[in-house]
TrEMBL record:
Pfam families hit by this protein: BCDHK_Adom3
Name of protein: Protein-serine/threonine kinase
Keywords in alphabetical order: ATP-binding, Kinase, Mitochondrion, Nucleotide-binding, Transferase
PANTHER family registered for this protein in UniProt: [PYRUVATE DEHYDROGENASE (ACETYL-TRANSFERRING)] KINASE, MITOCHONDRIAL, PYRUVATE DEHYDROGENASE KINASE
Xref: Gene3D superfamilies: Alpha-ketoacid/pyruvate dehydrogenase kinase, N-terminal domain, Histidine kinase-like ATPase, C-terminal domain
Family that this chain belongs to: Belongs to the PDK/BCKDK protein kinase family.
Branched-chain alpha-ketoacid dehydrogenase kinase/Pyruvate dehydrogenase kinase N-terminal domain segment(s): 30-188
Superkingdom of the organism of origin: Eukaryota
A single cellular component GO annotation: mitochondrial matrix
Localization: Mitochondrion matrix
Organism classification: Eukaryota, Metazoa, Ecdysozoa, Nematoda, Chromadorea
Primary location group: mitochondrion
EC number: 2.7.11.-
């Protein structure tokens, strides 16, 4: 499938050909163990060599799926803004396509990753605004709504995976400090589940008290089948676990 001129706006010609090219490839499947192993023994040069290709593949894949959205949604101002952010980031990272893995290039790449992360910081909210704009215009039929939901599921998973790759690289090989000395990049090899759950609950309860003037209490029971009586610890990205629990608590409070 070729990218339309309408989707890319000012980004046409050679950029469209590169998008077509990279969208033919499947993103690499990575396990958390692979993240850990590479974070401990990998090099900045190898990470850079992998990422400069992998990020182009992932960006091109999700941009291809943009073309499957209802045309009316793509014309909404907020949706256009999101698609332009992705095209702009693709073009920025494409500049490193044929570059070597010298320390200077890796440093420039790290700076560009930081720019991309900031650019995409509000993608979730902006995409939601695009849907609101569509509904306020003339609504959307059931068939289109199912297709949009399918796209959003894939879109947000893709976004999480891209940000994980970028953050992991910047913490391990860039200037971003880890949350604690035991972390390997963004990953905590011994994440304290109870602590994260309580933190998420307290913040959700604060919001609940603020908006409803009351909040439920929580009784947390921990059952560690592997080592009875000891706290449960897992290999995880604490911020991901926190976000999932926080959203679940918010839904429960409603």
């Amino acid at each position: 499938m070729r990218f339309s001129r309408k989707l890319l706006g000012p980004f046409v010609g050679s950029l469209a050909k590169k998008l077509d090219y990279y969208s033919q490839f499947q993103p690499s499947s990575l396990t958390i163990q692979q993240y850990l192993d590479f974070g401990r023994i990998g090099t900045a040069a190898n990470s850079y060599t992998f990422l400069k290709n992998e990020l182009l593949v992932r960006l091109a894949n999700i941009m291809q799926e943009f073309t499957l959205l209802p045309p009316k949604l793509l014309q909404m101002p907020s949706s256009k803004m999101v698609s332009n952010w992705y095209a702009e980031s693709f073009e920025d990272l494409l500049a490193f396509e044929a570059s070597d893995s010298s320390p200077d290039q890796v440093a420039r790449f790290n700076d560009q990753l930081t720019v991309v992360l900031k650019r995409h910081a509000h993608v979730v909210e902006t995409m939601a605004e695009g849907l609101i704009e569509l509904r306020e215009s003339d609504g959307v039929d059931i068939a289109s709504e199912k297709g949009i939901q399918y796209f959003l599921d894939r879109f947000y998973i893709n976004r999480i995976s891209i940000r994980m790759l970028q953050n992991q690289h910047l913490v391990v090989f860039g200037n971003v400090l880890p949350e604690s000395p035991r972390h390997v990049g963004c990953i905590d090899p011994a994440c304290d589940v109870e602590s994260v759950v309580y933190d998420a609950f307290e913040n959700a309860r604060f919001l609940c008290d603020r908006y409803y003037l009351t909040s439920p209490s929580m009784k947390l029971e921990m059952h560690n089948a592997a080592d009875k009586g000891k706290p449960i610890s897992i290999v995880a990205v604490p911020s991901h676990l926190y976000h999932m629990m926080f959203e679940l608590f918010k839904v429960g409070a409603q």
